[in-house]
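batch_manifest entry 22 of 60
target: 2-C-methyl-D-erythritol 2,4-cyclodiphosphate synthase
source organism: SAR86 cluster bacterium
requested by: lab member K.T.
priority: normal
notes from requester: please return tokens only, no post-processing; we will run our own comparison against the previous entry in this batch. if the run fails, retry once and flag.
--- input ---
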Amino acid sequence: MMSQNKHKVAIIPAAGFGTRFSSDTPKQLFKLNDVSIIEKTISAFEFCDQIDEIIVSANEAVREQVNLSNYNRKKIKLIPGGDTRAESVYQALKEIVDEEALVIVHDAVRPFISTAEIVKLIDEYEKRNADILVFGIPVYESLKLIDSETLEIKKSVDRNEYYLAQTPQITSAKILFEAYGQSLSNNFFPSDECEAVERYGGKGEFVPGSRKNIKITVPEDLLAEKEELIGNGFDSHKFCEGDGLLIGGFKVPYKFSFEAHSDGDIVLHALIDSMLGALNLGDIGTNFPSTKEWRDAAGRELFSIAYEKVRNEGYKLLQFDVIVIAEQPKMSGYREEILRSLSEITSVSEKNIGFKAKTAENMGFIGNNEGAAAMVISRLSR
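--- output ---
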């Protein structure tokens, strides 16, 4: 189906309270590495360039907690949800003006979806001739049909005939609006979009999904996936005539500048190196070679591009620790300004950024005040 030029809307139903989660706090608001489940889910879609709009239909508690200042406000819309998942999705569908738009519906409590997987689903929809596409995974465990009251096993089931359906699921706004409208008018509440569409004659197909894309349903699921990576980065530059040194996006006043192909910001360059290295995505030199394209490029611009690669892999920068090695100027006097700048550029809280200034004790090119260096250790999490 031709979808490249169509408006693409992500719908995230987040109004449930998770009765199986056994908590007074909605499970969407539980935190994974200092980030709430719902905010982690939203971020995957926010960083996807193919998504034009995100509608989050949520209960009041979730709407109050989701801090839109962390996101592109023009892209995200918060609306009240319904009493059921189906009603929450239907409420969001009513907000879509263009009935030819594509809708990608995703459970709020599947926070481990990656931007790359979202792009994969959209690309597959372009190639297929189905009314709806669904991420799914094979069943590997043995399946049994049971009596739900007595728990008696009635028979074994051939698992090869079954898949576990996941989200996101993609279809057209028109198809889904009609399917949910008919379902709800008949007092039927589909468990997912595919059930709604197929109930009224639509054709659905699976796209191979990931086992990491779990739905957090019970407290034990919070422990299922907290994958973290550690990266180490380094950068150094010689001094040249100038009027200051860029350190973490802040210009430290000095009689020299850095001699470099780009802006020479050793801290941001080392941070980029550490993130790319943690994900085995090469280093700053291979991603941003010394070509005309990157001449005089700002460190914050390079960070933004590199961080998009990190987000496309499904990871987020949680924390990093910086060491700047320079004989002069004394960096410790600008610590607050540098931390503030780094926090603004990376969206990492200052409390999660370490910054230390060292000298080389008059040894080597740094000790002779011919240049400076930076080392960064970064911590990434899915």
